[in-house]
């Protein structure tokens, strides 16, 4: 008798969990749709990519003429790769 009650509780809990997950999935999907609609109506100028360069970075060094010392393929010589 105790085993049967435990199995019933398990199945009830499982059904509740599945319903709750389905409800949460719908809620998340609706929020995602709102985000997409908002972006379509109000596009951002930001691409999502951010590049941070420290103020003491060698990328900012200039030669005598005010031209960047490192540009194009010369950057690869000062970037430390792992």
SSE topology:
Layout lengths: L1 H40 L41
Beta-strand residue fraction: under 5%
What helical percentage do the residues reach? 40-55%
Please tell me how large the radius of gyration is: 28 Å
Name the overall outline: elongated
* Number of strand segments: 0
Count of alpha/pi helices:
1
- What sequence of helices (H) and strands (E) makes up the elements? H
Structural class: mainly alpha
Q: Low-confidence parts lasting 5 or more residues at pLDDT below 50?
A: none
- Which whole number gives the mean pLDDT? 77
Sheet of most strands: none
Report the end-to-end length measured between terminal Cα atoms.
63 Å
> How many structural units, i.e. domains?
2
Word description of this protein:
The chain has one helix and no strands. The protein has 82 residues and is mostly helical. The chain folds into two domains: 48 residues; 32 residues, no CATH class. The longest helix has 40 residues. It is elongated, with a radius of gyration of 28 Å. The termini are far apart. The mean pLDDT is 77.
Summed up:
With 82 residues, this protein is an all-alpha fold. It is built from one helix and no strands. It has one helix at 2-41.
Please supply descriptive tags for the structure shown above.
2 domains; 82 residues
């Amino acid at each position: 008798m105790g085993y049967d009650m435990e199995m019933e509780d398990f199945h009830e809990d499982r059904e509740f969990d599945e319903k709750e997950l389905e409800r949460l999935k719908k809620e998340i999907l609706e929020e995602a749709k709102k985000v997409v609609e908002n972006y379509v109506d109000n596009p951002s100028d930001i691409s999502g990519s951010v590049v941070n360069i420290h103020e003491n970075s060698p990328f900012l060094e200039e030669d005598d003429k005010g031209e960047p010392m490192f540009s194009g393929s010369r950057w690869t010589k000062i970037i430390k790769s792992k």
